[in-house]
Amino acid sequence: MHSEVVASRSTDSRTGTGSSPTIDAVSLAIIEQLQQDGRRPYASIGKAVGLSEAAVRQRVQKLLDQGVMQIVAVTDPLTVGFRRQAMVGINVEGDLDPVAEALTAMAECEYVVMTAGSFDLMVEIVCEDDDHLLDVINKRIRTLPGVRSTESFVYLKLKKQTYMWGTR
After folding, report:
1. Less CB within 10 Å around the terminal CB: N or C of the chain?
2. 8 Å CB contact between 27 and 20
3. What is the C-alpha separation between 86 and 156, in angstroms, rounded?
């Protein structure tokens, strides 16, 4: 398990609005420092970016409050008891929002995104085993009002999982 910072540049994930906070070069440098080590001391970050520890602390809190980034512990699901992961493509009749909201409320759904293409929604599911996965797909997702069809892509082996894309 390790800590990583997940940074977003587009929409506010909490509100879904297109109004993005303005992020200056110093804030981007702070994000990059935290992406290298989410536990890096603010004093160390301050030296690297030319700010005081207090100024870094304030900027980090503002970035967190604005939904620009999160500081989280990223785990390998297999090492913490989850033996089955899958990506599920979902086609929906009508409005996508109610289905997307219902999916985001499910603890097993780690990633929910509206897409263009073959599927209306893509959902990453992390489950304890195949029976758990079957239950989530068959009894909880397929029964949601508006869900027309699903297609599951079961993960056989996780080769890479990272959120270290930087602040390009």
Report:
1. C
2. no
3. 9
Digit-coded pLDDT (tens) for 51-87: 999 999 999 999 999 999 999 888 878 788 889 999 9
* Radius of gyration from C-alpha coordinates of the chain: 19
Would the pTM of this model clear 0.70, i.e. be above it? yes
For residues 113 and 123, give the distance between their C-alpha atoms in angstroms, rounded to a whole number.
7
Average pLDDT over every residue of 85-104: 97
Tokens 């029976």, residue?
A: 131
Per-residue pLDDT, 166: 65
